[in-house]
Specification:
Distance between the termini: 60 Å
Number of helices: 13
């Protein structure tokens, strides 16, 4: 029988893994190097559950060594994530949004341990996650799980649902017998709106929305506190998206779950998040509470994204499309990487990269905002 693959930080997943988004109106209301300022050990009363400090991830995309020697080409590094810092309090949801290729999914994979960050640190309950995973970190693996984007790819088609959901239970020694495993699987299926009898079926016997519910049940098997949701509904129809998102919100309320929610759909993010981080070419350019960001966006890129969302009261008006193209990440612009598309760019923007700093109650990386030109 084909076995599942075990990844650090996530327990066990089938060999076919991966992780998207949609509805809004149908929703319910509602080994890294050392860092100079590491958080204190232990989980203090006011300490966030999740804390990322200066996370960066680069990939070597150079041609083979022989080609480089013959063609006299240097090594090429793609900076997928650069200095990403954020915190998430227990029971809250941080959404990361941005255009395709901005580094959202890479952040997700770094947090669950699929990638070792080039630099920076990630703390969970006060522990350095990647340092702990290097020593085993079984407890951390149980506490951090991931929901992938594509339910058609993330479930092993040769395994029954009972085996898929029970695999993390067996890997972490949470059950001692088949009967106990079946009992836990039945409870997990019922918690996501499926029936206990569904455990005897194969993934191909379910719809897309039902498969994603199975993926959620598998992620909940180890009773995690932190779920990384990499566009969990983008592969689903709009009405099914709403059902899945409502289940996730219900589970969050019942279990005090903490979510990192990856999406490119701001309309959905508005309903499911508490805070929103906007990413552009690997960097977080704005980080703010949800209501503040949607009411008064500061960064020009955030404004551009919000202007592109269809609005009921703007019926008949031409929408402003997102202008320009994302630059080549192998050769990013100097200074602020958004300046070729920014209507407010000046000479400073082209020469000096803005730092993410607190301005007016939000964190934003923009010279125009800093200088009061916005």
């Amino acid at each position: 029988m084909t076995r599942n693959c075990s990844f650090p930080g996530m327990g066990s997943f089938p060999l076919w893994g991966k992780a998207g988004m949609g509805a809004s109106s149908l929703l319910e209301s509602g080994a890294a190097g050392p860092h100079p300022n590491p958080p204190p050990a232990g989980e203090g009363a006011d300490q966030p559950l999740v804390r990322a400090v200066g996370l960066a991830m680069s990939f070597d995309v150079s041609p083979p060594l022989l080609n480089r020697i013959l063609e006299r080409k240097p090594r090429q590094l793609l900076q997928a994530v650069d200095e990403a810092s954020f915190t998430i309090n227990k029971g809250e949801t941080l959404a990361l949004v941005g255009e395709s290729g901005c580094g959202k999914s890479t952040v997700a994979r770094v947090l669950v341990g699929l990638y070792q960050p080039t630099r920076g640190r990630f703390f969970f309950k006060g522990q350095d996650v990647h340092a702990a995973l290097a020593k085993g970190g079984r407890e951390l693996r149980r506490g951090i799980q991931m929901i992938f984007q594509d339910p058609y790819a993330s479930l092993n088609p040769r395994w029954k649902v009972a085996d898929i959901i029970a695999e993390p239970l067996h890997e972490h020694g949470l059950v001692q017998s088949r009967a106990e495993a079946d009992e836990r699987v039945a409870a997990l299926l019922q918690s996501v709106g499926l029936a206990a009898v569904d455990m005897a079926k194969f993934p191909h016997q379910f719809s897309g929305g039902q498969r994603q519910r199975i993926s959620i049940a598998r992620a909940l098997a180890t009773q995690p506190e932190f779920l990384v949701c990499d566009e969990p509904t983008s592969a689903l129809d709009v009405s099914v998206q709403a059902q899945v998102l409502n289940i996730m919100k219900k589970l969050q309320r019942e279990r005090q779950l903490t979510y990192l929610f990856i999406s490119h759909n701001l309309a959905v993010v508005r309903h499911v998040s508490d805070h929103v981080g906007v990413m552009y070419l690997g960097r977080i350019v704005e980080l703010a509470p949800k209501r503040t960001l949607f009411a008064t966006p500061r960064h020009p890129y955030t404004r551009m994204l919000l202007d592109a969302i269809p609005k009921m009261h703007d019926t008949g008006r031409a929408r402003t499309p997102v202008q320009g193209e994302v630059p080549n990440p192998l050769n990013p612009p100097t200074g602020c990487t958004f300046h070729p598309r920014c209507p407010l760019a000046n000479a400073r923007c082209k020469a000096e990269r803005p730092a993410l700093q607190a301005i007016g109650g939000v964190q934003v990386a923009c010279h125009a905002v800093e200088e009061g030109r916005v």
